[in-house]
Amino acid sequence: MKTWQKVLLGIISTGVIAFVGLVIYMFNIFKVLDRVELVNENVKETIPFYYSPSRHMIVEVRINGSKEKYPFILDSGATTYVFKNMLDQQDLPDIGNGFAIGAGGGMLFPDIHQIDQLMLGNIEFKNVSAESIEKLPISCTDDIYGILGKEAMQHLVWQIDFEKEEIQVVSELDQLAFEEAIDTIKLSENPFGHQLYVTAKLGADSLKTRLTVDLGNSGYASTNIKEVEKVKGRSIDMIGNASVGLDGENKSKAMVQEIENFQIGDIILPRFSVSASDTPMGLLGLGFLKNYKMTISWKDDALILEPYAQQYFGRKGFGFGARYDEKANALIIKSIYMGFAANKVGLLPGAKVISLNGALMDTADKYCAFSFKGFEQLTMTFEQDGVEQTVVLDKMDYFPVEETETALLSDLND
Fold first, then answer.
1. Which among 72, 132, 189, 406 has the fewest CB atoms less than 10 Å away?
2. In a 10 Å sphere around its CB, with 0-12 CB exposed, 13-18 middle and 19+ buried, how is residue 115 labelled?
């Protein structure tokens, strides 16, 4: 055998060994995370929830017999997590290392901790394995202690009434009552990670894309840029950081694309906007799901949607995204949507926001207490390139509709 052949064979052998090792490592992680057990035999429980300032769904749990209840994000697309403030409160043994890919495409290797008992109302889980990070790299989440994720959720059926802000949690689907006007959508499950996927069809050509049903995502839907670029529709480019997830800021190319004919199951929306970036992860978030009384079941691979009388699928905003930067101790502009009011006045990522509608933004608490809802105009004072400016921003439709069409518009800021 020639020298170059030996070198090539060595490279291939090393690659195969590394791949097999990674597969074994991942399989062992899934086994550890999947150890969670449901203690109750027949569950029928009503669980209240509320929204955090970061727009996450929050449920309260008790850990290892604690009297205190801890706010956790309910997230059908994520693994169970605990944050440092939870570890400061409870001694949770470290039982190994995990692996995760964040929404920005970055890799994480968090510690895994053992929770002997986790109580959600009267629902008891034991042997819960939870990955850990310092905290969510998202503004207004300091008072959140963790994430209740898919490894626990898969054992039960969850019917979420977003209007009443309560969840019916049962053992079997036939324990629930449904209205006549429902859409039952078949889901597929990742047999290892337990993510649930729905197939969406985009555009007149019904381009298929797979989206994770993600209660932990406050957006509408997101997918890869290469997919939406194949679909007819108006688009808005974005400069700055596309989003933020467990792995930090997503700095890839990003845009918002209007989809003409967005279909999930038998639901067809003539106009629907989808966020897109270079990262491969596709998500179906609360912006879409909150228009329905929603039931999700891992046992039945089913997503059941009962439409509310009033539904809002459009978007309005001032055209910027901001996050409170703890290192700078300031509210910093992170993203700008081209063509919007913020872009037209020359606002750029990196600018420091001093005040919004006269309210100083000099602490994270003040920013988290501020609400963008109800305002059609926003007076902003900001500092950029050493110059302080005050501007008035008008709220704009992402994709204005023709006068002859009916627009369903949400009142959520970016």
1. 406
2. buried
For residue 102 the two structure tokens come to 């964040």
Global confidence as pTM: 0.86
Question: b/e for 268-282, b at 16 or more Cβ within 10 A?
Answer: ebebbbbbbbebebb
Q: Are 117 and 63 in contact (CB under 8 A)?
A: yes
From the number of C-beta atoms within 10 Å of its C-beta (0-12, 13-18, 19+), residue 404 rates as: exposed
DSSP secondary structure of 339-399: TSHHHHTT--TTPEEEEETTEE--SHHHHHH---TT-SEEEEEEEETTEEEEEEEE-EESS
pLDDT digits (tens, 9 = 90+) for 328-385: 899 999 999 999 999 999 999 999 999 999 999 999 999 999 988 888 999 999 999 9
Q: Residue 161: exposed, middle, or buried by beta-carbon count in 10 A (0-12, 13-18, 19+)?
A: middle
What's the average model confidence in pLDDT over 200-218? 92
* Least confident window among 12-21, 178-187, 241-250, 274-283: 241-250
pLDDT at 306: 95
Task: Say whether 13 sits in a helix, a strand or coil.
Answer: helix
CATH number of 316-397: 2.30.42.10
Q: What is the 3-state secondary structure (H, E, C) of 103-164?
A: CCCCEECCEEEEEEEEEECCEEEEEEEEEEECCCCCCCCCCCCEEECHHHHCCCEEEEECCC
Query: Is the pLDDT score of 15 beyond 80?
Result: no
Rounded to 5°, the CA angle 318-373-369 comes to: 105
By the 8 A CB rule, do 118 and 128 touch?
yes
Whether the pLDDT of residue 69 is over 80: the answer is: yes
SS3 assignment, position 88: helix
Tally of residues, the chain = 414
Nearest one of 315, 309, 337 to 412, comparing CA atoms: 315
Residue 84, Cβ neighbours under 10 Å: how many? 12
Higher pLDDT: 16 or 284? It is: 284
Distances (CA, A) of 382 to 131, 248, 267, 330, 361: 38, 24, 43, 11, 10
